[in-house]
Amino acid sequence: MTIRLAATCALVALSGLALAACQSKSYNGASGGGGKSASLRAMEQVAIAAHKCWIASKDPAFRAYQMANELNNFGGTPRFLLVPAKHYGGKPLLVVQASGNSSRVDVYGPLMDGALGSRIGADIARWQTGSGDCGTAA
Hints:
The chain is 37% helix and 14% strand. It is built from 3 helices and 4 strands. The chain is α+β, with helices and mostly antiparallel strands. The termini are far apart. The longest helix is centred in the first third of the chain and has 20 residues, at 2-21.
């Protein structure tokens, strides 16, 4: 009985070591931010503000759209999309993304060519600086 208990304890200990060895690691080389890249930190900041100001606030200018977050995608390009509210799988109308270890955020898509383009650009630029302010509606 004692040998059986010792064997069970040893097996549990080895299982714990095996699980610890399988922990994921960050290899992006970014300092600070808990191992997050500069692009991910920038996009998290912008995506939170965009959701708060455009979607959660029920801003009439953005009522026809919904956000599709892809901040932790495996391609290393954190981004979010605005897609038609009634067609979540539809073609993105706005792409907001950053890549690599840069905090520069790129914005493109058909919405940038329309009436909302200047507002979107101003909002994104403001949010990149760390402001979570929603500004004024267009």
